[in-house]
Structure formats: C-alpha cells, structure tokens
Amino acid sequence: MEKIDRRTTLKLMGMGAALLAAGGRGLAQQAPTADQLVKGKNPKLIVLSQRPIVLETPYDLLASNPEKTPKDLLFIRNNVDLPGYNTVEGASPQGWKVEVGGLVDKPFTFEASELFAMPQTEVIMVLQCSGNGRSLFQPRPSGNPWKRGGVGNVTFRGVRLKDLLAAKGVKLGEKAFFITAHASRQGNAPEFVRSVPIQALEHALLALSMNGEPLPAVHGGPVRLVFPGYFGVNNVKWVQKIEFTEAENTTPEQMPRYRVPAIPNTHLPFLPQEPGKTYPYNFQNSRPNWLVTINSFIFAPLEGQRVQGPYVRVEGVAFNDGIVPIVSVEVSTNGGRTWHQAQLATQGKSFGWVRWQTTLYLRPGEHEVMARAWDATGRSQPLDGNIAWNERGYEYNGVMRVKFTVA
C-alpha cells in the first residue's frame, strides 16, 4: 500500500471537514421553517419542535410589539396537532359541536356557530406557556428549551361560559369543584384533558376571535376555552367537551406533567427542590400550573444593544394572574443594592401585561439593568429565579437582567 505523506493527510482532512460542513448546511436548509410548519406564521419564529409543533417568538420581535402580539408572531405550544389546523386562518364553526355535562342538572350540546348570536365579551390577557423561561434554570430541566418567547399579549372575544349556562338554564351540582375540558380528537389526535378549579368559571370564555379576527385554527379555532390569568396549557384549544367534576382529571397532562412540588396546606408558592434531582409527584405533594406567576420583562434596551446616553429610557411590561393589580415595577443598575421606581402606564387589575418605563442617568460604558414587579398582595420576583428550580422547568419568574452599552 502506498504511504500518504503528512501534507496529503492534512489536505484530505480539510476536504472531509468541508464536506461535513456543507452537509451540515444542507441538513439545516432542509429543516422546515415556522411558516412552512404553520401557514401564515413569521419565518423568524424559532422551531423548538416539529411534532407536536412548538414555536418560540424571538425576543426582539416580542419586544417590538408592546401593545399586542400579532397572530403571525404569537408562540405555539401544541400538546396535540390537529390535522389540517396548522394555519393562522380561522376554522369554520359550522358543525363544530361541544358537549357540556358532568355535575350539571341538564347536560346539553351546542354548536360553535350558535355562540355568535349571544352577547360577546372581550378580554386582554397574557397567554404564556408554563415552561417559558425554562432554559434560564440551571441545570437545564427537561422539555423544550424556551427562553422568554413563549408568551404573548392578546385580545380574546367570545361568550362567557357562565352566560351560556344561564342561557341554557343549567345549574351546577354542589360537588362541581372543577371544570374539566377535553380537546378534539379529530384525525385520531391524542387525548388532551385539563382541569381547573371552579373559581375559574367567573371569567371563563368560549373564545371565537383573537385580536379582532377569527380565532386562528392553530391557536384553537373555531372555539377555545380560555381562562384569563391561567397558564396557556389550561386554555384548551379545539374544545369539544366540558365537564363539571368533583376532582381533577388523572390524565398525564394533569399528573405528573404541568405540576411543581408543593407543601400541602401552606401558603408557600412552591417546595424548594434540589437542582438536578427528581421528585415523586402525586396529588398531595404538588400543585398544578394554574395561575400565572408575577413577572416583568425589559423590552428596551435589549441585550447587547448600544444606546445613546447619558439619559437612557428603560421600558418593558409586567403581569400577574389578574386577581390583584400590579402596583409597582422597580429597576436597579447596581445588582439590586438600590432600586428606582418606574412609571406604570395603567392602574388597576389586568389580565394583560402592564407597560412601564423610566429614564436613567447612565455614564458611558457597560451597564446591567434589572427589573422586578410587585403586586397588591406583596408578591414579587426572586433575584435568583433558580430557587424555584423543578425538573420540568415550570413557572420561571426570576428578575430579568439585561446588559447593554451606553455610548
């Protein structure tokens, strides 16, 4: 066999590396973009999963739409992909039937198209995946590696569930402690069921539209059962059955998924779990991801941005479960030793996000700004979000930190 000298070996190795790089680029080009997976979505959305479809909104695009999140930019976290519904266009309500039963005196079935003739209610609300911010936990938990783009601010419009029950003359049983919603199983879709406490009935909405347009099929159209103030997983898309039940359902999406460790009969929001460890979830030692945790985001400046000084405008949004108002947002430029009060754009309770802004005097150079929100119950964000570490990475709400340069 003829020997190959060192120069030839290095040349062959270089050719091999080039071929591998080209092959890698080819594979990357073959991976579908967001608009190829879902018709009408912005191609810049980050594909976290192709099946079920999970798309994250790039943070700069989220921040550039501080009033509401348009349908082409809104994140998607599907647990079920309904065949033929991967589009931002609306789905026909004709023939879409929803059963209502369980602990009610008169079970009934209605067609989604009937709802348009009833009084409509509108709500602006934060829609957020309970895994949003997961990649900020250390070590990184299991699941889709969300950064901060699994959230949006949207306007839903539709018929309140309690108004529908009243119109049908339906009364609930004494032991109707939960609302249990089932998603459609069209096309042999997997079962998806979620239960929320009966208190959620006060604001529960059978949503028919989003941001003034027909509810996008991929976001649950033609009708989605929406619970303002609750994490996105509880807002069941393509709802086809609503039951009033005495207990939570026992499907995997209720147990062990979408839960965090908790101490029974305490007011603690979570049970500290040692990072990297597993937990033996059951209904007694954990709680579901129901109510949205208090949080705040910095929309300007953005990470790594270069801004003109010395007066720098800092702004963003804050939100909670809507039960009580956000009362303040504070910012710090010295690692949390001192805090500066920001100005809130609105006062009072809100299911949507509350805009805030302030102006800081900053010398030229690198800076880090932090933001935290407070609400009327005294709830705020931890300086170290990792204290709430859990193995599935739910409910991250640590103080946000942004590094930028002042020119």
Automatic annotation (TrEMBL):
UniProt-listed SUPFAM superfamilies: E set domains, Oxidoreductase molybdopterin-binding domain
GO molecular function: heme binding; molybdenum ion binding; molybdopterin cofactor binding; sulfite oxidase activity
Cofactor: Mo-molybdopterin
Chain segments annotated as coiled-coil in the UniProt record: none
InterPro entries: Ig_E-set (IPR014756), MoCF_OxRdtse_dimer (IPR005066), Mopterin_OxRdtase_euk (IPR008335), OxRdtase_Mopterin-bd_dom (IPR000572), OxRdtase_Mopterin-bd_sf (IPR036374), TAT_signal (IPR006311)
CDD domains membership: SO_family_Moco_dimer
Biological processes annotated in GO: sulfur compound metabolic process
Sorted UniProt keywords: Metal-binding, Molybdenum, Oxidoreductase
Classification via Pfam families: Mo-co_dimer, Oxidored_molyb
Oxidoreductase molybdopterin-binding domain boundaries: 91-251
Domain (Moybdenum cofactor oxidoreductase dimerisation): residue spans on this chain: 292-405
Keyword Lyase: no
Residue ranges crossing the lipid bilayer per the database entry: none
Record PANTHER family: SULFITE OXIDASE, MITOCHONDRIAL, SULFITE REDUCTASE
Protein name per Swiss-Prot or TrEMBL: Sulfite oxidase
